[in-house]
Amino acid sequence: MLRILFSVLGIFSYSALAVHGRGCEDGAYDWSDKNECIQAFGAVVDQNAARQSCIHLDYFQFQGQLVQPHSLFENTQVATLVKGLGQNSFIGVEKSNNVSWTYVDGTELVYRNWAAGEPNPNHACAAMQIDGQWRSVDCDTAMSFVCSYPDNK
């Protein structure tokens, strides 16, 4: 399980420890308290291919989706994996109907971690940087991605 230790001394600082979860496949980690696993994939593909890859995790026998961080805690867990890849990675946030930013399942964003100057109004997909901040990107950009899927407990 990914655990975050917060120290509040006027500012937040954290360190993250990733531990393989009992209900997750090799290379995946327990995610928050959702009975889900998260896994980073280094394959460099566009956002549509990343979404389809998460949906069709056939070798895991699970249907997943691009990861959708709903809190600082969850975002930090995902950032640990993205940092391990060493490159920006697609997450499950997109501009719905070219109007507002939502999660890829169509639900309203309850958490945001945009980098300064983001999101760019000309882009419709989101990626997490290795520092955990989000950038808007062209959906045809090729990059790695992070999926979430139900654990097998």
TrEMBL record:
InterPro entries named among the record's database cross-references: C-type_lectin-like (IPR001304), C-type_lectin-like/link_sf (IPR016186), C-type_lectin/snaclec_domain (IPR050111), C-type_lectin_CS (IPR018378), CTDL_fold (IPR016187)
Alphabetical keyword list: Disulfide bond
Entries under Gene3D superfamilies matching the protein: Mannose-Binding Protein A, subunit A
Domain C-type lectin: 33-148
Designated name of the protein: C-type lectin domain-containing protein
